[in-house]
Amino acid sequence: MSITQSIETLAAKVKDLKPIIETEEATKTAFIIPFISTVLGYDATDPREVIPEYTADIGVKKGEKVDFAIKSGEDFRFLIECKKIGEPLSIDHAKQLIRYFNATDTEFAILTNGEVYEFYAQLDAVNRMDERPFMTIDLSNIDPRVLPYLEMCTKSKFDSDTITTNAEQLKYIAEIKKLLSGFLKEPSPEWVKFIASKITSKRMTAQNLEAFTTLVATASSQLLKDEANRRLRSAQDYDDSPTTLPEQSPQATTADTSSPVQEEPGADNGIITTDEEIEGYSIIRAICCSEVPATDVVIRDAKSYCAILYQDNNRKPIARLYFDRKTPRIGIFDADKKEHMHDLNVVADIYGFADELRARVKSFL
Prior knowledge:
Layout lengths: L2 H15 L6 H16 L10 E6 L9 E8 L2 E8 L12 H9 L5 E4 L3 E5 L14 E4 L8 H5 L8 H26 L3 H11 L6 H35 L11 E3 L20 H14 L8 E5 L4 E5 L2 E10 L6 E5 L4 E6 L10 H9 L3
Parallel strand pairs: 3-4
Antiparallel strand pairs: 1-2, 2-3, 4-5, 5-6, 7-12, 8-9, 9-10, 10-11, 11-12
Helix pairs in contact: 1-2, 6-7
């Protein structure tokens, strides 16, 4: 079962049972243990892998327990602190998790109420748990862009260096999005002054600052609406317009990879890299990073397809995404430079071609 299927199955279970779950223990049994086993892939019945009610005496604190410790051999992989379903998550209410994290050799921790899973690392200081999560999985509102990173945390894909590298990116992206969202909804005086300085030479008196605060808030609201309308129009165009490329049956075609790709992206060529293409790229990178460094898997968009390349070399294509059509497709290259076409119902279907993608990047080694 793919990571997408596992998460969606668990999300449906949470939605169905949430109204009747009343205790933390019931939350663990119904939701958190299945997350550990079906999503992360650990055997919850094997005490060598999953230790419930893990106890270690730390300083003057004796007999405190963390709900679950997940290990591989002698190495800790995750410490998990659980709350009752529906209870808000706050790092202030997980003091024992922080103490255990700082006292053991674990690099990652999870704080969860069975519906929301917050993943923590030690990015800010060595052997000290961060105050903010680097990744949040909300089963009531699943973000498919996060699932490739979740797959990196599973038993079969676990690599602490890869997780840490991506965790840093995820954490900063989340913080930047939160900051920008705050600027757009309620622009701060500093933000208003910065914007105003780019478009006017007026001195920012109290009166002018008040006026420009209103203007910046209005412009931000209109910008968000314009972007939403643009995406709706784009989706409508795809539905109403005939495909620009002939439909082919999923079969192998020989691609010319001996010369550079002609459709290079540029500032004024009309190329727009969509969220779906970014999601597809993230999935491919997550799959291939088991064989090559994640940084060697590079996206390069073009007008008729989105190329995924090895080491940003257009003579070494891994795959191509054809998403500008009613039936999206992925083309995966083999060692003989033949492109094999596959139809996709959803972007996450790319996980079904993991073996072909790994074989392709192995051919470059």
